[in-house]
Recover the amino acids of this structure.
């Protein structure tokens, strides 16, 4: 082997060792079958049966489960693929998935107790949790897909959701027409993995400053959502009102 080839080989293995170190928090992705999810959920006492996939996302899948004959939504944090040059796939390790599920379930429960219209949280185990299924014979539509009865009133509900969350020290952080569900004339908010919890007094001022950008982004997203219904919102005005109230009450 020439010196050039030897140097190239050493460089290859050095890069491989570095990548192995960087991936120490990860495990290889394995596709999760419906049967596997059902077995885990039943073993953990969350449902009696898993019957269908309701939706898939970057970090979690949502399934339709049954508990004593009643439908529940089952959210399961899973390994997720990340593209890079070699198209390999990496995913969060099991302990990290459990922590992510616990964090979202805690935020969901806190929002529910504060009167925010969210799917009622039920139980959590490891990397999965159950909550109320929004729908009847089929799942309720996302705001993106919904035909609204009185879009002005629904827009008011959306602003009220942001305000109720803030009063509970929560900023959603990723609010859009993809995580607002329209069911029985009411708007429900779902998906809290990006939420910011401002309840701790530790570094609260810094958290509020960083959360302000997310709050304004949520409000601007609502403006875009409802513009297609011909509704004009004032995200900057709502932002000034809400941030001023929050600072005066809690700083």
């Amino acid at each position: 082997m020439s010196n050039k080839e030897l140097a190239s080989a050493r460089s290859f293995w050095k890069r491989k060792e570095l990548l192995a170190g960087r991936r120490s928090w990860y495990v290889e992705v394995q596709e999760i079958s419906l049967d596997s999810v059902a077995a885990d959920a039943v073993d953990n006492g969350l449902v009696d049966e898993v019957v269908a996939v309701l939706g898939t996302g970057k970090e979690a899948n949502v399934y339709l489960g049954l508990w004593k004959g009643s439908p529940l939504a089952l959210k399961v944090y899973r390994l997720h693929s990340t593209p890079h040059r070699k198209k390999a796939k990496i995913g969060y390790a099991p302990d990290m998935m459990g922590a992510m599920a616990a964090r979202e379930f805690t935020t969901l429960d806190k929002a529910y107790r504060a009167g925010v219209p969210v799917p009622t949280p039920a139980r959590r185990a490891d990397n999965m949790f159950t909550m109320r299924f929004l729908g009847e014979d089929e799942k309720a539509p996302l705001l993106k897909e919904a035909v609204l009865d009185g879009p002005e009133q629904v827009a008011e509900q959306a602003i009220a959701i942001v305000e109720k969350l803030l009063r509970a020290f929560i900023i959603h952080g990723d609010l859009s027409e993809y995580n607002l569900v329209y069911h029985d004339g009411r708007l429900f908010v779902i998906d809290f993995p990006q939420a910011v919890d401002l309840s701790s007094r530790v570094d609260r001022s810094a958290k509020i400053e960083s959360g302000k950008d997310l709050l304004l982004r949520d409000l601007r997203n609502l403006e875009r959502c409802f513009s297609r219904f011909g509704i004009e919102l004032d995200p900057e005005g709502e932002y000034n009102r809400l941030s001023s109230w929050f600072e005066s009450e809690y700083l």
The chain has two domains: 25-132, 151-250. Residues 112 and 206 are 26 Å apart (CA to CA). The chain has a mean pLDDT of 84. The first helix runs from residue 3 to 22.
